[in-house]
Please model this.
Amino acid sequence: MFIKSLSLKNFRNYTEENITFLDGVNILTGQNAQGKTNAAEAIFFLCTGYSPRANKDKLVIKNGQDSAEISGVASSLYGDVSVKVNFNKNDKKTIHVNGIQVLKIGEILGNINSVFFNPAELKLVQESPEDRRRFLNISLSQQSKSYFYALQRYNKILSQRNTLLKDPNISIIRETLPIWDEQLCKQAGKIIRARNEFLTKIAPIAKEKHLLLSDGKEVLDLKTESGYYGTEEEIAYALFEDLKTGLDRDLRLGFTGIGPHRDDIKFILNGDDVRVYGSQGQQRTVALSLKLAETETFFARFGEYPILILDDVLSELDKTRQRKLIGAVEHLQTIFTATNIDRTVFKGRAYNKLTVTAGKVKQANK
Model:
């Protein structure tokens, strides 16, 4: 899969611009604050229906404007697919896939697939379990709409359960809770099983990618902290029993203390927890290895690679790791953003260079 064209209207610092990409390596280059990352963000939005940088859609609308639009056309094994997203200042958006409006945000998923990495993705390794769950949810939702809808249902039921736990009438809680728990655990079984399968697949690939990027010097292992395994039904049953056992704890806390909303992943590098003992360079390489491994899970699932978006990654790597990375992504469409290009690193390799200046993009001579 690769994106062929991207159109932007009043999106971030773009007034109106059309960008053409080629299969293989594309590089959006230019000085800071010119719009490179904005274009990368727009592509990811077309894939997932949300921004990796803004918590409200209206924030992507250009200053002084009331609405914005992004659209793109991608090529896949099954032909071309088009996605268009319109935004307005009421923080509402409309989505069209192949010219037909879709009413559920989940229907945008799986049409154009992408894996996104920028320096902020270091949170995946450095910060809270929520960031690691976010990684799992984004990837699995793109690969399976049923996962996305199970996650939606789970979160809704979880919110209702947490509200019930705060009810001052304990007898009502004890009478009503099993009904909510049965529904909660059914969705949890789907989520945890999918995550377990995903991590089982991605762990050896991430190890392989990290060995490549580190020139064989660092061994990466992934460990899940879910604690639940088996079929959906087995996971649901085990969690249901644990919720019953932990009811007094949840009543004291006022929220649900176990379940997939508490899952985490540990990254172990040469035997040590990289979050605690790893340097920032090692943490960055771990996160990047995970993203490269993620592209392989898409290929295994769909028979084609997603679009790989690497925003401001090259500047954070030494030349050896830059060369290793470029060699590792030549087989899929990769969109780099960079303030400059070290031609020695790309020597002998084909790439499409696009220069970005104040929200205008043009084909550049290499």
